Task: structure prediction
Amino acid sequence: MRAALQSEIGQDKLEVVDDMEAVGFGPGKVKIRVRATGLCHSDLSAMSGVLPQPAPFVPGHEGSGVITDVGDGVTGHAIGDRVLVCWLPPCGHCPSCRRGQGHLCLEAFGNVATPNFKRGEGAVFGFAGTGTFSEEMVVPAACAVPIPDDLPFDIAALIGCGVTTGLGAAINTAKVEAGSSVAVIGCGGVGISVIQGAKVQGAAQIIAVDPVASRREAALRFGATEAVSPEEFADAKNRITAGEGFDYVFEVVGKSATAQKAYEMTRRGGSVVVVGAGALDDNFQINMFSLFLDEKKILPSMYGGGDVLRSYERTIALWRAGRIDLANLITHRVSLAEVNDALDQMRTGVALRTCIEL
Result:
């Protein structure tokens, strides 16, 4: 079968091969024919080494498809089921899951260290235990979440990561209050989803901050009340909040520099919500006096900060009701053979989300 392969960490291009094999099928597993997958910035971070990932590996973790085989002991799934891929399925019994924080489940991370592909005699990993840049893959049954027939595969793929992460940051983690002021630093697919989540929550002012003009223009279409470049951010804070700072500032880049800027732009007693996944050696430092005196809340948000299965259901309900726009998040479409074009589209910022159709 065909798949996109990253042979070594640090390579900026993927090799599309046709001799990959999905392995590991057996009890508790399902086999999925991938139909659509989104390119998430986390895939680029894994390729560059910012996020730890064993190599060689097949990138991709935001996908959807059809179940083609079901292993022994699997219940609730059948051949022919349409599913989206959940790269971090809650196990249901670890301490985090028992506390209702399934998005922090560590047991699911065990999938990352288990190869689920093979090329020749060599083992190949799937990114985040999945590897959706492939025509077929084998994953634990919990990773395959059934979707309704009216949900297109391309939109379902986005719900599997980026949309859930962004909406959840606003709804679950920050619990944005109606009438509040919000700023979002970084307006790719996840940042745009944060904007939509803040709009759903009733924020009065939503300021999009991004260096790319096309992304700023897109942010306005998705619910931002104003869009500015990073150089204009301080002026926007002074104009909109009389210099006090925003109630909520979302960092959706994954850099200490932008996290610091988010902290500076948040009002005393406000919330800094860190959504971007950063590097292990990129440290974010806060002055201890400011931390005490200003009482700004620092809220990391992992995978939307809540029950991901409930978040999927909520997202589908909002989409059906027309409260959020998911179709127009997909600005580019490519085939698997054109996957490196998708990488360029994300690196240059011209794409909100590129859908790879298989």
